[in-house]
Every structure is written in structure tokens, then in C-alpha cells.
Glutamine synthetase (Pseudooceanicola nanhaiensis), 452 residues
Amino acid sequence: MSDWTDSLPESARLYLENRRLDEVECVIADLPGIARGKAVPASKFARQKHFHLPNSIFFQTITGDWGEAAGEEGFIEPDMILRPDMSTATAAPWTGDWTLQVIHDAFDRKGNPIPFAPRNVLKRVVQLYEEQGWKPVVAPEMEFYLVARNLDPAKPIEPMMGRSGRPAAARQAYSMTAVDEFGPVIDDIYDFAEAQGFEIDGITQEGGAGQLEINLRHGSPVKLADEVFYFKRLIREAALRHDCFATFMAKPIADEPGSAMHIHHSVLDVETGKNIFTGPQGGETDAFYTFIGGLQHHLPEAIPLLAPYVNSYRRYVKDHAAPINLEWGRDNRTTGIRVPISEPEARRIENRVAGMDCNPYLGIAASLAAGYLGLMREERADKQFRGDAYEGEGDFPRTLGEALNVFDEAGALAEVLGPEFCRVYSIVKRTEYEEFLGVISPWEREHLLMNV
């Protein structure tokens, strides 16, 4: 191995032990969270300190179209400078040769971070915590479906065939038999994760037909967002090996639960290493209540980051394991904000609003930004909710168009996330929404064609 590989993370070095590295995939997440970049021979990567991509990758909609996000400079597509973060180097174990992936950060020609690059947005929010002497800690939970191959978008998505030859069954949450049905796919997920140095805290069957959940160990927000970004790719690759698709759509199958990315948060005092949500006697602190207050006050403004597509809002249905409001409660899964049972030193707050279709960098950034504003503004939480929160009213936007209107008026949130990022994001999402409104759905043809 060449000299530069000696500084790789241990998992990457073990993967390459006694092998010749063939290729390096230089990747960066765009607004939807899709990996963009270049694959280069290992010998070339060893010689280059950076590479270039046009900034237009951040102006692109999920369909490949563009809005007017380029702004006053026009659509001239200037190059960004992308520099590797070698701490993110990890295997691509599904490839036919020996390949590494490396996440890059985006800068302009003056060395300033590109403000609308999702990883930079999250770094900006984390830095605001660090300036207060705080260290944010997160733990994401990833829900997704394994489904039958769907080659015709006009046809509904169906559950995959399990090992038994029968379609995956619904309403079998936590069933080990159901997990065994997907054994070969899960085995590859574990193998790929181990090769990449990722620690899975557990895999469970969720309530939907073919729906699984992976829990990740808590840690640095940027590191965990990197892992979710990588995990989405490795899960898709594992599924394709077994003639099925993995989907992270928020609501892929009608009448089945949606898929969430629940985000657990805690905040440590850098000097003491103590959890600021817990006092000396083990009780809940003012910081605990103001962080919850920040989520309640500012998550409605951040919904387009947590629910970024028209499909996202189909998930928020009563009694389908997704919240409809931002009530908070202890060990209450009907509320949008849940405080899990834990020891005082591990006290944490769970945001249950984010969908699995969100960009992990932006979803975590939005959640931390809301909590940060609560801490800084001392925004007290509402009274704890007791009982079934589905009996209450919804208190956040229920369509993408409505959510974008609220997002555009969120001055304090925009200052935390970055005004230029918010401008670009809103334009791209409005372009997507207008594209969707231009499509006539099967429901409209079925019920309106001959009846109105």
C-alpha cells in the first residue's frame, strides 16, 4: 500500500490488508442526499489534493431539473473545490474490485465552505454548539422497506418475497421469524457494515410488510450523518444482490406504516463531560425543558428538511406510528417528541417527526438547530402530554407547499442553518412541488374523469 493509505481509518486498512487498492470513489451528498462525485484510479487519488465539481449539483431537483437557485450570478456553473475528509474513508465491499469511498467537503475558490452543501450546513450548526461549550450527541434510527422489484412506476409497490416463498407479512413488529424471512439480505447488510467499520446497535422487524429498523450507536452528529449516508447505499446494494429493492420513501405502501428516521439528542458540557439535560441530583434541568421548547417552537418551520417530498406528508397519519403534532411525553410513542426511559446520565430527547427520506445531514441539522434556538432563547416546553396524542390536533404543516411557506418566514432558523442555504433549498423544493402538481394521478382519472 502507498504511504497515504497508512493514515486510513482502521477498518479501511483492514479491508485493504495484503490487497492492491484499485479505485477511490470521491463522493459528496447533494440536497436529496444522493452521492455525487467521481471514481478515480487509486494512483491518481494519491497524487491529487482535491477535485472539482460544478456547484449546480446543489441546484438540481430529485427529478434532475433545475429551479432558479443559482441566483443573481446566473446559471454559469462555477466549479467548487472538493477536499477529502480522510476520516470518512471506508470500503465499498459490493464492488468487483478493491474500492474505497471518501466523503469530500465543498469550498469555493477562496477556501470558504459552500453554504448550501448539506454536510457544511450540519457542521455550521455543530460549531454553534461548540461556541457555547457544548458537544451535541445524536443517535439515528433508520426505518426502511425491502420490496419486490418495481420496474413500472404506474404499479403499486409490493412487499418482497421472503425466504419461505411467501410475501413479507405486515403487523409483525419485533417478530424474529419475520426477520429470518430476510436473512440473506440482513446477512449482507451486516457483512457490508462490518467491512466499512460501522457498528449496528440492532436490527428489528417493524410494523409494515417487509419493514425493518436499524439502530446506530450514538456519537458525533457529522459522523452519524456520514454513516446514515453510507448506510442507505450499502442497504440498497445488499437488497439488489437478492433480487429486491430497498426503499427509504416515507410512505411506499398505502395502508402500511411509514418509515422514519427518529433522532435521539443529548448535549454534553465540554469542560465537565456531563449531560446538560441532567442536574447534580439526577433531575431534569432547565436546558432539558428549553431544548424541548426549541423543538416545539421551531420544528414546524423546519418541516421541509424533515419531510422533503410530497410523499413525506402521507406518513403523518393517526395511529400509524407517526406523529401528527409536537406534544412531548415520557416514553410515549404517540407524541412527536419522546423522552425515552434511561439512566439520568444518558437522558435524551427523541424527535419522531423526521422521515427516512430526508437527507441525514439536513434532518439532523434541522433538529439540532431547533434545540439550539430553544437553549439560547430559553423557550420553555409546553406541559408534558399524558395519554394518546393522536386524540389531539395536528400542529405542523401537512403539505409541502404549506411547509415551504412557513420555512420561508423562519428568520431565526435561517440564521442558524445559513440564509443562502435556505434560499437555495426553498427554490429547489418549490420547483419539485410544481413538477408534482403538473402530474395527473390515477386517483384523479378514476374518480373525476366520468363523475364531475
In short: The two ends are 70 Å apart (CA to CA). DSSP finds twelve helices and 14 strands in the chain. Residues 149 and 320 are 25 Å apart (CA to CA).
